[in-house]
Amino acid sequence: MAFWEMVFYLVSMVAYALAGGGFIYSFVFKNPRVVSKLTALVAFGFLAQTIAIVARFNATGHLPWSGHYEYTLMGGWFIIAGTLFVGWQNKQLQGLAAGTVPLVLIMLGYGYMQNPGLTPMAASLKTVWLYIHVYFAWLSFGAYSLAMAAGVLFLLKQKSEAQEVPNPAYDRFPSLGRLDELIFRYVVFGFITDTIMISAGAIWAKDLWGSYWAWDPVETWSLISWLTYGITIHLRVTFGWREKRLAWLAVAALSTVIICFFGVNLVVNTSLHVFQVR
Amino acid sequence: MFNNLRKYLSSLRFTILLISLLALIFAIGLWVPQKRLLKAIYLEWQRNSPTLVAFLDALGLTTIYTSPITITLWLLFFLNLSLVLWQRWPIVKNRITISDAKIADPVTAGGYPFRRSYPLPGDLDGDRVVGLLRKNRYTVLGDAAGFYGVKNRLAPIAFMLFHLSFFLVLLGGLISVYTEFVGYVDLAQGESFQGELNRYNASPQPKLPKIGSPPSVSFSVKSIVPRVVQNTPTGISVLLVDDRGTTHEVDINRPYSTGHSSFVFNHLGVAPLLVLKDATGKEIQGSYVKLDVLKMKPDRFALGPFTYTATFYPDFVMDEGKRATRSMEFNNPMFFIAVERDGKKVAEGLVPKGGVLEFAGYRLELLDMPFWARFYVVKQRGLSILYAGFAIATLGVIWRLLFYRREILGAVREQDGVRCLVVAGRSEYYKSLAEDEFAKLFGDISGKA
Question: Is the ipTM value over 0.85, yes or no?
Answer without folding.
Answer: no
